Amino acid sequence: MSHFRKLPSAQKINLLPDVLAKPQADVCAHCNYVNKTDYSFCTNCGYPVHNKLLVDIYHKRLQHRTDLLYKAESSVLVARIVLYIMASFLLLGIFFVFSESSEKYFMVILAVILSALFYFLAFWSRSNPFTAMLTAFIILITFSAINIFGKLVDSFTTLSGVIGMMLCLALLFVVLKGVQGAYRVSLIKEELQTKL
Hints:
Blueprint: H1 2-6, H2 9-14, H3 18-21, E1 25-27, E2 34-36, H4 55-91, H5 104-124, H6 129-150, H7 152-157, H8 159-195
Antiparallel strand pairs: 1-2
Helix pairs in contact: 4-5, 4-8, 5-6, 6-8
């Protein structure tokens, strides 16, 4: 201790711990996360830690992400409505019972099963949109391929075949947009949860 008193005052200052000379951490004003002082942005939420001029840019980016979330949710909603419409349309297959075909019972059972499947996928897309939309897309592309390649000549040469193929492609496009939207929804929601 006596050695410490003999040092000039300039050397005494250098012996102070770094903690007293410079703070080691900054607390984010937005989420209260503790960041190192050499960071300009919060590593938890992205909020500007030092430069208050960047707060407007942060809020504009947050608004942009919210707009993207709305667009992605809209594409999921459109795909969900299409799945409900397909389920309702397939349910009309029960009227095959009144046909003269020898396969009428098979067609009725297949129509009811597919209707229930698409209704379930549409309903499931409320809680787990990406998995439900991806499953619906895989089922649709499988049945479309079977339908198109099963009657390959008719698909390209008759009017009903071309219309059926165009309808299959339109349904695939809408459901694929729903898959993309659901994927974006999950990413953006995860990002926004860390910011809010």
